[in-house]
Write a sequence for this structure.
């Protein structure tokens, strides 16, 4: 079997077109969704991410602000900025780009963001709401994976979903979202026994390990849906995922490429969450 490609770039473009129309309508009624992105220091990857977020907001018609603090900024400086943004009516979503410099306590910062503006879905309140199936904001990467499955008409009810990786940003919230759609969910990690065997039982396999081409064809069931959340840069500059794409694509039923798979969906869902937040602030949301 040669897998059908789940094209994250195309799905993302489609959702962005829909959002663009919705934002135009909202603006017509006096609702202007706004996102603030906070960057501390000049981590080169973070600088690129932040720029891409600003550009995506612009494309869809969302007001965006970049707040840059120097690497030397104190935790108090950052807390003061977050407090200001929490109170700013023009801002519906606040994203503090991670990782933060070592001298800043990441947990304290994430907990300072108002849960109503926590479009990353990282605040413990939102983590808890996700756990009981009532998310205000689901974290953007796993939420993007759910949208990819939805747009590809992949039914999850009763399916065995196996997630490799237990991070707070991807693995754990991914499990909650799949469970909510009635999948039977297993989370694997570095201590899992017979990882290959567990993976071979998966109808839906999500790789979020952070190791290049870790998932090989012998870990994949014929016809499985394989979602690759990894982005790894090889010494020659080439980007590869956590899945050994060339061999796995011969066996899977569906596969997401890297680049052009899950990656483009993350920013798209950030904008989506920002729009939902704006609607809610105006009394129009769920
Ligand atoms: N750094 C890398 N990915 C992310 C993300 O999804 N959100 C935030 N805030 N920082 C990140």
């Amino acid at each position: 079997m040669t897998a059908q490609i789940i094209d994250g770039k195309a799905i993302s473009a489609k959702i962005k077109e829909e959002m663009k129309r919705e934002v135009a309508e909202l603006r017509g009624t006096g609702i202007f969704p706004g996102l603030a992105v906070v960057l501390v220091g000049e981590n080169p990857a973070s600088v690129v991410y932040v720029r891409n977020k600003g550009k995506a907001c612009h494309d869809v018609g969302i007001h965006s602000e970049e707040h840059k603090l120097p690497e030397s900024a104190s935790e108090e400086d950052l807390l003061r900025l977050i407090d200001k943004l929490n109170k700013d009516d023009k801002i519906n979503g606040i994203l503090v780009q991670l990782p933060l410099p070592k001298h800043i306590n990441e947990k304290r910062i994430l907990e300072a963001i108002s849960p109503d503006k926590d479009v990353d879905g990282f605040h413990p309140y939102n983590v808890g709401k996700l756990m009981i199936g009532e998310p205000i904001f689901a974290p953007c990467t796993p939420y993007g994976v759910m949208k990819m499955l939805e747009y590809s008409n992949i039914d999850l009810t009763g399916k065995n979903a196996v997630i490799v990786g237990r991070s707070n940003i991807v693995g754990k919230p991914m499990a909650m979202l799949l469970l909510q759609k009635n999948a039977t969910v297993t989370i694997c990690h570095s201590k899992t026994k017979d990882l290959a065997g567990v993976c071979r039982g998966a109808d839906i396999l999500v790789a979020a390990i952070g190791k290049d081409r870790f998932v090989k064809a012998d870990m994949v069931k014929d016809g499985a849906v394989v979602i690759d959340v990894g982005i790894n840069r090889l010494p020659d500059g080439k980007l590869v995922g956590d899945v050994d794409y060339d061999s796995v694509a011969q066996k899977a039923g569906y596969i997401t490429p890297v680049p052009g798979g899950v990656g483009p969906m993350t920013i798209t869902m950030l904008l989506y969450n920002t729009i939902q937040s704006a609607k809610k602030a105006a009394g129009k949301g769920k």
User: Anything to note?
Assistant: Residues 140-263 form a domain with the Rossmann fold fold (CATH 3.40.50.720). The longest strand covers residues 34-40. The longest helix spans residues 8-28. The CA atoms of residues 208 and 229 lie 5 Å apart.
